[in-house]
What we know:
There is one protein chain. The protein is built from 15 helices and 10 strands. It has 336 residues and is of the alpha/beta class. It folds into 2 domains: 161 residues, D-Maltodextrin-Binding Protein, domain 2 (3-Layer(aba) Sandwich); 154 residues, Periplasmic binding protein-like II (D-Maltodextrin-Binding Protein, domain 2, 3-Layer(aba) Sandwich), CATH 3.40.190.10. Strands 1, 2, 3, 4, 5, 6, 7, 8, 9 and 10 form a 10-stranded mixed β-sheet that branches. Helix 6 packs across helix 7. The longest helix has 15 residues. The site of fe (iii) ion has 2 residues, from loops.
Amino acid sequence: MKTRYSLLALLFGCTALPAMADEVNVYSHRQPELIQPLLDAFTAETGIAVNVAFVDKGMVERLVAEGDRSPADLVLTVDVARLTQVVDAGVTQAVQSAVLTAAIPPQFRDAGNQWFGLTTRSRVVYASKERVKVGEVTTYEDLADPKWKGRICTRSGTNDYNIALLGAVIAHDGMEAATAWVTGLKANLARKPDGGDRDQVLAIAAGECDIAIGNTYYIGQMLADPEQKAAAETVNVVFPTFAKGGGSHMNISGVAMTKAAPNHDAALKLMEFLVSDEAQKIYAETNFEFPVKAGVPVSALVASWGAFTPDTLPLADVAAQRPAALKLMEDVDFDG
Ligand code: FE
């Protein structure tokens, strides 16, 4: 974008293009390649440049240390608890936007307008097409059934996605039932938790386990990757529900505006762009995530997995269970 700006500036003179001087600075915990197509579309449409710093670790600490002098306008991240951690650290600001509140269902945004979900994803079961019959696993609670002993794979219990899932189990079933569930799940593991969600699919393909827990979009990403396509084709995507009423566990990727936000107005434009039909379609087609905005279709591949019932538990309630879920994972020594 910088190159294009310079060329245009040379051609037309800087003063002719005041809008081109606008910019937004983003701290992103999301992989740069996942969000770049969206940011390029935004810049093409508005002339506002977007500078991205990929912040893998220490997002909260960095924003706190920078304080009012932070160059960051927006934080983009996955997992609701990561968003609430940034908010709880006091480094964000409320954003009043009719565009955002109209596009995003209430369970996927903060009641105080501090964070907003941009896409959703479900944490589902990947089931071996060969070794697991259709209909054999229907609930999250099923995963603790001894019939799965030695047959389940998952990534670390302290991973954000698994902590959020356990938080949802606690919210639905209570602490006692959640303790029994996670103990049963651990007892069913085929191997110690290891790797990411994609690695669990590879383990099923290799015959190490029969079912695994993972996020929906990874299957789409693996099918689009020539090296991982064959492995992904060995599994079905199963949308479990919570046994006592509830749908499939949902999580989000989302955005928050920093308190410092030196480019407030341009940042707000980017936030609103990210829930536009155009941006939501890019999220759906290139990342295989679910658009948060009603009426924007999922990709054809995601649609092929069939309809499912999303859980309606407000994600703020899931995030609130994070400390309890993390402690429970440690108490049962899930990764041990
Ligand atoms: Fe992910």
